[in-house]
Amino acid sequence: MPRDTVVLVPAAGRGERLGPGAPKALRALRGDPLLLHAVRRIAAAESVAAIVVAAPPGAERAVRDLLASVVGAAELVVVTGGASREESVARALAAAPPDPQVVLVHDAARCLCPPELADEVAAAVRGGHDAVVPVLPVTDTVKQVDGGGAVVATPDRATLRAVQTPQGFRREVLVRAYAAVAAGETWTDDASLVARYGAAVHTIPGREEAMKVTRPFDLLVAEAVLDRA
Ligand code: C5P
């Protein structure tokens, strides 16, 4: 498998939904920060040549020291994260080493994502897809509601998927989309951004282990996953 992939890791979120404390990526899960768990797994993927972390402002040095021992052969770049996830990814993309032509974007909060999933996403991009996202079927019925909380639609669950990271892109496609962004534009995942600019987004099967740690309950689940391994 070619080492042709750079992984951008936005890790500058405050993690307010997790309760008061350090920035989320630096909170401990069984003694190690979430970011360390995440990068250790990403660095173990065979495709990965470089990892660019968008660190919480002020924690750049600490993040570099934290990760130096787990990146292995991968090049590590640390940039200062932005005020939004979008800005953090943009800064990481701008600092990515020039050679890798496959770009993955991976949330630090998905700290137990297996290395194989990163390789599968990269392989699908290498295989010719402009944009690739790992997805899982949705188990809850999902409602669309209005501002007052009244249900306005119930999309057919069979057509819905929950989207994870790492999300993969042909470098040129992601760079073009970020270059085209207008002031004030927002998005919650990078695949929706590139889709706005015309790219087709391909799905592959995700992994339950690639769950996102957002709330305290998710930490309990992540601990159980870690203990099982
Ligand atoms: O807010 P949410 O949990 O969806 O954030 C997803 C990822 O984006 C997290 O890994 C978080 O650290 C990152 N993020 C960031 N910069 C921000 C806000 C979020 O890198 N300003």
Provide the CATH superfamily: Spore Coat Polysaccharide Biosynthesis Protein SpsA, Chain A
Helices, by number, come to 7
Examine the coordinates and then state which fold CATH places here, giving the name of the CATH topology: Spore Coat Polysaccharide Biosynthesis Protein SpsA, Chain A
Nearest-integer average pLDDT: 97
The biggest beta sheet is recorded as: 8 strands, mixed
Q: Report how far the terminal alpha carbons are from each other.
A: 25 Å
Helix-strand pattern: EEEHEHEHEHEEEEEHHEH
The CATH class label is Alpha Beta
Strand content: 15-25%
Small-molecule components bound = cytidine-5'-monophosphate
Helix content: 25-40%
Subunit arrangement of the protein: single chain
Dominant shape = globular
State the main characteristics.
single chain, 229 residues, alpha/beta, Spore Coat Polysaccharide Biosynthesis Protein SpsA, Chain A, eight-stranded mixed β-sheet, two-stranded antiparallel sheet, globular, binds cytidine-5'-monophosphate
Structure description:
- By secondary structure, the chain is an alpha/beta fold.
- It has one domain (5-228): Spore Coat Polysaccharide Biosynthesis Protein SpsA, Chain A (Alpha-Beta Complex).
- 31% of the residues lie in helices and 23% in strands.
- The chain is built from 7 helices and 12 strands.
- The strands form 3 sheets. Strands 1, 4, 5, 6, 7, 10, 11 and 12 form an 8-stranded mixed beta sheet that branches. A two-stranded antiparallel sheet has the order 2-3.
- Strand 4 (48-55), helix 2 and strand 5 form a beta-alpha-beta unit.
- Helix 5 (171-180) crosses helix 6.
- The radius of gyration is 17 Å and the shape is globular.
- The chain starts with a strand and ends with a helix.
- Cytidine-5'-monophosphate is lined by residues 10-13, 24-25, 54, 81-85, 88, 107-109, 214.
